[in-house]
Here is the input.
Amino acid sequence: MSAKPTTGFSLVELLIAMALGLMLTLGVLQVFLASKDSFVLQQRSAAMQENARFLLGRLAQDIRLAGQFGCLDLERLPPAVRETLPAALSSPISYQQDVLRLITALPVAVTPPVGEVSAQNYGARWLMVSNCLDRLEVGEGDALLAPQPGDLLIPLRLLEYRQRDQRVQVRSNGKGNFETLIEGVADFRLSFGIAADPLSAAVGGSYRDVIGGAEVARVRSVRVALLLSESPAVKTQDGQQQRYVQVTAVRNRLD
Here is the structure.
């Protein structure tokens, strides 16, 4: 009897199958890695957008409220009453040594309680007590004031914004340490739209990086330029970057 021929794969066929399988595996792996890189990139982009939205939204709210003192117009107060105001209230917005300072009324309705109160009760730097007509008292810190029936309480905060290293930070009421709001900041620039005269509501000319003296009272808007980066410490275009520009009217005074 003759022996039956053996069946199976030859060595060449086995090598070809292994090569095809390896190529298929590498292709699937490449697709997976590309999908992962795309997901990570989208996550980083979304995180930058969320940081920018948070910071710019907060800045816009505080800039709009700068110089808002509730029912009071400090310029229309009797001279004798105006002289009793803290000097800082005359400049509700200022920019010195790369620090933006804003004085804003707390955006909450406050009903005067019975007894004495202070600015510290409301997490504020100053507390104004007024009937919105002809009487005004101002206390700072823990100074106690005694509201009368019909008075309105107006707590005022001092907010300070700055960039340090790759962070934008804020401090309240000029006390304590600056707290970090967002990180990954490659650039944070402020410029100011100045009116031609105190009675004009429109910005005259180009925006300025520096303000001082009589110009403070003529600030009508603030432009914020923000650059976020994956590698903010490296002054190159490497990595993902996002740039934002926002212009906000002070006290919503623009026409």
In short: The mean pLDDT is 83. The CA atoms of residues 23 and 174 lie 64 Å apart. Residues 40-252 form one domain. Helices lie at 11-65, 79-82.
